[in-house]
Amino acid sequence: MDLRQLRHFVALADHRSFVRAAEAINLSQPAFSRSIQTLERDLGCSLVERSSREFRLTGQGQLVLQHARRLLAGSQALHNELVQFNGLTGGELQFGSGPYTAQVLVPEALAEFIRAHPAIRTGFHQGDWEQLAVWLKEERIEFIVADSRHFTGDPQYQVQLLRPRRGRFFCRKDHPLAGQTGLKLSALLDYPVVGTRIPPMIRKILADIQGVTDFTPSVECAQFDAIRRVVMRSDAVGLATVEALAELVEQDSIHLLRFVDIPADDPDLQVQYGVVSRPGHSLTPAAQAMVRALVEVDERLAG
Q1: Which structural domain range is residue 39 located in?
Q2: Domain final residue, candidates 49, 83, 117
């Protein structure tokens, strides 16, 4: 067993096809198949259920995949730390972001990081908190910047808090709700709501205010630009953080809705940003620099 074989096996698991995996790593299909067969022989077990019509890993294959991801991540982390030992002149950084932080904070901080460290190859992976937690556990990413309430208090995670953010509902300027006063949240029952995946604790509060069993967007989307475009071209009502909407408000291109039954400064309705990492695992120099950029931009955005 060597790292090359493990990379091939991870590619197979990710692409779920011998042909697609071989193409992805630029290897002939026969050579790729021999590499997997050699790994199975060295480990003394079958990794793929070849009798199944659908691609499926065996129980041992699932176990090997978990360890393979950790071993490859550890190898890459060692390489990064050695390359970056005397300065950020090479290597890579992989981190994750939730949909809210990806609207403004992460792009602004990433721009600062790239200007200061152009030689670092950076992977910015967006997902919901459950997917991000899996990637962090598998060591595919070094840290997460997202709503930290899913991780706070869990000993599996280390959380560095950033500023909380308020969310607002918004619509196009000529929307039927735009000119109304004294609105209650129940008014949204007549219109589709478009937004990112809402944290469960916020969903419950909004559902109780609205008098329904649950509050979920009619359309869930992780990309703010897509949410904005849908809102501007339909009767849908969007939901985003205040800072993500600031530029549109300055341009007077949207209308911010105010609901009399939603407390303006309820901390439970705010998204608590934070940087989440694994306790006992030191971040690479590149990751530390990116976290510093996030903290600095977070403070700047407060103004």
Answers
A1: 1-83
A2: 83
pLDDT 10s digits, 145-181: 998 988 988 999 999 999 999 889 999 999 999 989 8
**Does one domain contain both 142 and 267?**
yes
Task: Identify residue 296 by its one-letter amino acid code.
Answer: E
Is the confidence at residue 232, as pLDDT, over 80?
A: yes
Phi-psi region of 252 (alpha: psi -120 to 50; beta: other; left: phi over 0): left
Whether the Cβ atoms of residue 12 and residue 6 lie closer than 8 Å to each other: no
135 and 271 part of one domain: yes
Q: In whole angstroms, what is the distance from residue 236 CA to residue 254 CA? A: 12
CA torsion angle 87 92 93 94 (round to 10):
-170
CB-CB contact of 102 with 126 (8 Å): yes
pTM confidence score:
0.71
Nearest-angstrom CA–CA distance, 15 and 138 = 17
What stretches of the chain adopt beta strand conformation (E)? 92-97, 121-126, 144-147, 158-172, 193-195, 219-220, 237-241, 254-256, 270-277
Which residues does 133 contact at the CB level (< 8 Å), separation at least 6? 144, 150, 151
Instruction: Please provide the DSSP assignment of 268-298 as one string.
Output: GGEEEEEEEE-TT-PPPHHHHHHHHHHHHHH
